[in-house]
Amino acid sequence: MLDDIDPFIGTAATDLPRAHGLAASWWWPKPQVGNTHPGATSPFGMVSACAYSGAYPTGYGRYAKNTEGVPEELFDRLEASGFTHFQQSGTGAIRKYYNYVRVTPMVQPLDSLGESWALRDEIAEAGYYAATLDTGVRCEITVGAKVAVHRYTFPEHRSARVVVDLSCGGLAIDLGRTVPLRAQVESMGRGRAQGTVVMEGVPLSVYLEADTPGWRQMLWYDRRLIDGGTRLDFDSIRHTTLRPFGLLLMGSVRAGQVVELRLGFSLRGCEQAKQNLERECGPDAPAFNVVRSRTRARWREHVSRVQVEGGTKSRRKVFGTALYHSLIKPCVAEDESPFWPDLGPYAYDVCTMWDIYKTQLPLLAAIAPDRFTDLLESLIRVCEEEGNFPIGYRMARGADRFFRQASALAHTALADAHAIARPGLDWSWALVHMVDDLRRMYGEDFFEHGVVHPITHTLDLAYAHHCTAQVARALNDRRLADDLERRGRQWVNAFDPATGLLRDSEFYEGGKWNYSFRLIHDMAGRIGLAGGDDAFIAILDRFFGYGADPVKQPGRCPGPTEMAAGYALNRFEGLNNEPDMEAPWAYHYAGRPDRTAEVVHSALTWQFGTGPGGLPGNDDSGGLSSWYVWASLGLFPVAGQHLFLINAPAFARAVIQAGDGEFVIETSGHRETPIGVDGIDRDPPPQYVQSATLNGEPLHAAHLSAADLHRGGRLHLKLGPEPTSWGSANRPPSLS
Questions:
Q1: For 93, 416, 455, 632, which has the most beta carbons within 10 A of its beta carbon?
Q2: Which residues form the Glycosyl hydrolase family domain (predicted)?
Q3: Which whole-number Å values give the CA distances from 508 to 351, 403, 618, in the listed order?
Q4: Euclidean distance between CA atoms 398 and 331, whole angstroms
Q5: Alpha helices in 441-585 (DSSP H)
Q6: Strand, helix or coil at 364?
Q7: pLDDT per residue over 277-316, tens digit each?
Q8: How large is the angle between the packed helices 360-367 and 410-419, nearest 10 degrees?
Q9: Rounded Cα distance, 474 and 403, in Å
């Protein structure tokens, strides 16, 4: 899959062929842009590096902050003022975090620092990014887990420069700048320097080595050189007093001369940053090719854990890139917590659980189980240190934890990890924090009244009580389990029996239609509340646009009237919004897996493509991409329930390396179908699962347990052009 990865997918505004059929009736209100970046990354690595323009939200690209429709352009070209580190990946809302330690190769005076130059001849691969600045400097970057290596090829010049700006951070939008609170920089000569900046309450340290023999090395402040100075200290910095500062290397170059810059990073001081650099770059210089090769090998190891056979070139490229995007975040930095002294994993860039708990975390549990366990261990430690499980967690100290989005989502991942017997976690201690977290924030009102607004938090908390009850019962705490299960049944308080939908409330980025089809732990009861199978299916059919006319998507700067008309459709948002991710599989619980097949087929055909505009919306740290991975494999994880739902896959055969096992999904009767970018001008008909076997035995249910996948086995699906009764009688498990 490594050769199928295209890091440019999702970096520009959505640009997909006009949808046909069912997908043409879906309406997308959120920003139509993937918000990914093409920079160098390592699987779950602490460091990323990319060209920096200051654009929203990753620092790369051309776009201004946007919340609806096609994003506005901040610049009329791709440009960069240098190359920064620590980028977000595909997030939809971020202001001032990251993009630290800007490195700028220059053939201009220091006064020109901060100017941007056009980018051309960009290349991006897993672990590698390159571009040429308009100044004629060819720039290449690779990263390891905790290091970045820059390689610059200069044109001939008598006074070339490499400038390191430690004061830089954030974005070039309103309220987007990051201002360090404190900082110190030390120049040690012979191409070595180190420094620490406290950004958003976190001490970020860097140790630097440069291959620049004969060049001058100087500190600078406010774009003025400090001749002979070896150290800068700033004890208290404010927005009004900040002036840029950093290190400069300067000398003459002949045409084609290469300069290498190596940076080691740590959240625990300069000495550990130096150790990280030495460990990953080794004793010999240059180190660029060594680091690039090792990172590429790590990517090959990770993406090879899912192999597919068949598919058009375009479909394979979209799939390979989706798998890549699913494995960039969260960052898991071993022994790097700046907030507690113990060794062990420190996970950040959980931005946010709302984006990733349904699809990405189950994918990590399957194909990157050690990193999955590290993440959970780190979240438990955060809860221990800060008082609750975060919904979002960045490399920052403070209260920006996204509690408006959702409540108690870590419980789903913990319940799944316990069910598949993941080693390495103290489950008695984990249960303590799971229970305590349920009664914080919105959980206090839920505990007292059994319902809370925003109403979606009622569903979150009821589900989290159910998930926690499963862990408590497995640990033989029956009294606690009974109490948790009783409270978990209060999901019913969120619904209006008169409509079969959620009660009126305020909603985060959506409405009651988007949130009404979540896969809760009592879907049989939820379908009964809506009036039974036929009534529930009728509501779903309306939501997905069966029989509806095509709609027009919002353009740039859509007006209130246009947006209100779109919202009034109460329509599926076509993977442009997180609450819709699981909705297609709600049909399974009403005995209509054929409907799931039709919706998912339409989404895979029309909502994803190649090229920079190939995503229908924000990738959200891999949440959207991991949906694509599962949907293409013909599976959907029901997070927190140790369950997978089965659907017709997009490939003839797939192999998942889940832990030590190998789970094979094979088909008979599979028909290759193109995707929209392959030039089709019609809606290709879907395929349906007509019968199935699991490890050679007939499988009459359209679901299997997560244990079946994790222990390895063989799922054979017979596909055909017409649905049968397969999966309609044997429903997925439900409390009722």
A1: 416
A2: 272-720
A3: 15, 11, 16
A4: 18
A5: 442-449, 456-474, 478-488, 512-515, 523-529, 533-544, 560-567
A6: helix
A7: 999 999 988 999 999 999 999 999 999 999 999 999 999 9
A8: 30
A9: 29
Instruction: Give the closest residue to 461 by CA, choosing from 478, 481, 433, 442.
Output: 442
- Helix, coil or strand: residue 497: coil
Q: Give the residue-averaged pLDDT of 353-379.
A: 96
Task: Measure the CA–CA gap between 139 and 118, rounded to whole angstroms.
Answer: 13
Buried b / exposed e along 267-300 (16+ C-beta atoms within 10 A): bbebebbbbbbeebbeeeeebbebbbebbbebbe
Tell me 350's DSSP state. Answer: B
Lowest mean pLDDT among 126-135, 394-403, 585-594: 394-403
Is the separation of the CB atoms in 407 and 443 below 8 Å? Answer: yes
Tokens 């050690």, residue located: 370
Say what the alpha-carbon torsion angle 40, 43, 46, 51 is, to the nearest 10 degrees.
10
Please classify residue 734 by burial: count the beta carbons closer than 10 Å to its beta carbon, then call 0-12 exposed, 13-18 middle and 19+ buried. Answer: middle
Q: Is 265 helix (H, G, I), strand (E, B) or coil?
A: strand
The two structure tokens encoding residue 427: 């489950």
Peptide bond into 338 cis (omega under 30): no
Tracing tokens 């001490």 back to the chain, one arrives at: 203
Tokens in use for 565?
Answer: 């008309």
pLDDT category of residue 92 using cuts at 50, 70 and 90: confident
Q: How many CA atoms lie within 13 A of 568 on its CB side?
A: 6
- Of 492, 419, 484, the closest CA to residue 736 belongs to 492
Q: Give the C-alpha separation, 717 to 13, whole Å.
A: 37
Tokens of 446: 């839920």
CA angle 362, 366, 368 (to 5 degrees): 100
Across the beta sheet with 703-705, what order do the strands follow?
A: 635-638, 643-646, 703-705
| Among 528, 499, 532, 533, CA closest to 516 | 499
| CB atoms near residue 483 (< 10 Å) | 15
Q: What is the bridge-based pairing of β-strands 661-668 and 713-720?
A: parallel
Rounded Cα–Cα distance for residues 95 and 171 (Å): 7
pTM of the model: 0.97
Amino acid (1-letter code) at residue 556: R
Q: Kindly tell me if the per-residue pLDDT of 616 is higher than 60.
A: yes
CB 174 within 8 A of CB 284: no
| Structure-token match 């970096």, residue found | 11
